[in-house]
């Protein structure tokens, strides 16, 4: 282990409100109020040690440090449940160890998460179409 390096793993979660642009066009004040409510839900139901960022385009980024896979799965499930009551937001995530985190700059990380999010959304639509 290198001196001064304590991070074992980093989970990065991106949460995006689908179709927010259509809603924003006709309900600007309600749109802004919903984004504030979404931010409040995340601060209330996520861990105090996590870091939250509002990127843009109704998209939030969350950094979670040193969580087990079970803890992260449970936290993601809880987040999905709380956010499902608000609107169709789609969380997706990426777990990285120290070596992987060193490979990503912010733009590359964000691009990877957005692509994963798009894949998750397409898969959700396909599953709905099969039912």
Approximately what portion of the residues adopt beta-strand conformation?
Answer: 15-25%
Shape: globular
> How many helix segments?
5
Q: Give helix and strand order, one letter per element, not per position.
A: EHHEEHEHH
Q: Strand order of the main beta sheet, please?
A: 2-3-1-4
> Could you tell me the radius of gyration in angstroms?
16 Å
Biggest β-sheet description? 4 strands, antiparallel
> What separation lies between the terminal Cα atoms?
50 Å
What's the pLDDT, averaged over the residues?
Answer: 78
What percentage of residues falls in helices of 4 or more residues?
A: 40-55%
SSE map:
Layout: E1 9-17, H1 20-26, H2 28-45, E2 51-56, E3 59-65, H3 69-84, E4 89-97, H4 98-103, H5 106-130
Antiparallel strand pairs: 1-3, 1-4, 2-3
Helix pairs in contact: 1-2, 2-3
Describe this structure in words.
The protein is α+β, with helices and mostly antiparallel strands and 131 residues long. Helix content is 55%, strand content 24%. The protein is globular and about 45 Å long. The N and C termini lie far apart (50 Å). 14% of the residues are buried. The mean pLDDT is 78.
Question: What can be said about this structure in brief?
Answer:
The protein has 131 residues and is α+β, with helices and mostly antiparallel strands. It has helices at 20-26, 28-45, 69-84, 98-103, 106-130, and strands spanning 9-17, 51-56, 59-65, 89-97.
């Amino acid at each position: 282990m290198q001196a001064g390096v304590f991070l074992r793993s980093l989970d990065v979660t991106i949460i995006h409100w689908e179709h927010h642009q259509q809603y924003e066009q006709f309900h600007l004040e309600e749109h802004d109020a919903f984004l504030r409510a979404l931010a409040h839900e995340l601060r209330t139901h996520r861990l105090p040690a996590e870091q939250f960022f509002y990127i843009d385009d109704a998209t939030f980024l969350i950094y979670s440090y040193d969580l087990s896979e079970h803890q992260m799965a449970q936290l993601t499930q809880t987040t999905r449940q709380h956010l499902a009551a608000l609107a169709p937001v789609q969380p997706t995530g990426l777990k990285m160890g120290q070596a992987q985190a060193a490979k990503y700059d912010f733009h590359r990380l964000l691009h990877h998460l957005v692509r994963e999010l798009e894949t998750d959304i397409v898969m959700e639509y396909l599953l709905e179409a099969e039912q």
